Amino acid sequence: MTAAAAMLSRSVLSRGITAHRLSKNVTFYMNEVSGCPNNNRESGEHNNNNKPLMLMLPWLGSRPQAVAKYCDIYFRTGFDVLVVESEVQEFLWPRWGLDHGKRLLELLHSERFVSRPLLVHAFSIGGFTFAQLLVHVSQDTQKYQALTQRIKGQVYDSLVVGSVETMAGGLAKTIFPRWKTLVKQVSLLYFDMFKRQTVDHFNTTLDVFWNSPVTAPALFFFCENDALSDPRAMEEMIDHMRKRGVDITAKKWEDSTHAGHLKRHQQEYLSILDVFLHSLRLAPLKAKMGGGSIKEETNLGERNS
Question: Less Cβ around it within 10 Å: N or C end of the chain?
Answer without folding.
Answer: N
